Amino acid sequence: xxxxxxxxxxxxxxxxxxxxxxxxxxxxxxxxxxxxxxxxxxxxxxxxxxxxxxxxxxxxxxxxxxxxxxxxxxxxxxxxxxxxxxxxxxxxxxxx
Length: 96
What we know:
By secondary structure, the chain is an alpha+beta fold. The chain has helices at 3-21, 31-34, 55-69, 83-89, and strands at 23-29, 43-49, 73-77, 94-95.
């Protein structure tokens, strides 16, 4: 799949993700957005959540996102991203 297909699928699913998990915004980042992902690398997704998620809900959201994009997902919550890493990935992030 390409970035545009993932964006479209995620955008279409955003209302249900917002209702179920409190997802306010999603971004793609990492090697898939740069076009240099080796085979088997999960899609990196950053999520801004209204409130907090339990451990189970975090993993349920990650699973739901993986089903939407039809590939493994590495989910990062906006509030938990290391600032040093954020500086690197913010320029490459693609908003959903």
